[in-house]
Specification:
By secondary structure, the chain is an alpha/beta fold. The chain has one domain: Rossmann fold (3-Layer(aba) Sandwich), CATH 3.40.50. The protein is 23% helix and 27% strand. It contains six helices and twelve strands. It has a seven-stranded parallel beta sheet, with helices on both faces. The chain has a three-stranded antiparallel beta sheet with strand order 7-8-10, with helices on one face.
Length: 198
């Protein structure tokens, strides 16, 4: 099984500064996390904005495929139990990917997955530029609740890779820049849409 990561294995690279919109989205997403939950945080700047909010949570188990997120988690005063997917390092996504990571995830079950996206297709679901998106599907399959976090400007981007169909998504947390008509269309797919003021 996965083991806690030794300090000397964790990257020293710091997470980039994030926008007010990302922080507002993260605050709303974090409000969905209960103490003692087992969660997955996928790599990405929007999902990384969750980390300061986790300081208020107790007894979390957090799986991630990102060294930057793992490093930031270790800085929290109430450090969660940290699990890493392992796998093959992908420099484009700055995350572990591949079959080993997928096999590791399948050994567990989680309460929630927090994941970003490169785009929103109102009819199909979330989309990505990354060709290595099969890990995202596995993350969703092993989680009871999938929470997508993204800024509204991702709407309308024409990206052919379908990352997660709406059928796998439980909640979309975005900002009020997402038009009400678009939110209503997404809601028709059974997705709860949370729009936050940034």
């Amino acid at each position: 099984g996965a083991v806690p990561v030794p300090q000397d294995f964790v990257s020293d690279s710091s997470l980039e500064k994030v926008s007010k919109r990302k922080l507002a989205i993260a605050k709303a997403a974090a409000s969905l996390i209960k103490d003692h939950y087992r969660i997955i945080i996928d790599s990405g700047r929007t999902t990384a904005a969750l980390l300061p909010e986790l300081a208020q949570k107790r007894g979390l188990v957090v799986m991630t495929n990102s060294l930057a997120i793992a490093n930031a988690l270790r800085e929290l005063e109430n450090e969660p139990t940290l699990l890493m997917t392992g796998g093959t390092w992908d420099p484009q996504s700055e995350a572990f990917q591949g079959q080993l990571a997928e096999q590791m995830l399948r050994n567990y079950d989680f309460d929630q997955l927090f994941i970003g996206a490169d785009g929103i297709d109102l009819a199909r679901g979330t989309t990505t530029y990354n060709e290595l998106y099969s890990l995202s599907r596995v993350m969703a399959e092993v989680s009871r609740e999938v929470i997508v976090m993204l800024e509204s400007d991702k709407l309308g981007r024409k990206i052919h890779n379908l990352e997660l169909p709406w059928s796998l998504v439980k909640v979309l947390v975005t900002d009020t820049g997402l038009p009400e008509a678009a939110a209503a269309e997404i809601t028709q797919h059974g997705v709860r849409v949370i729009r936050v003021q940034a």
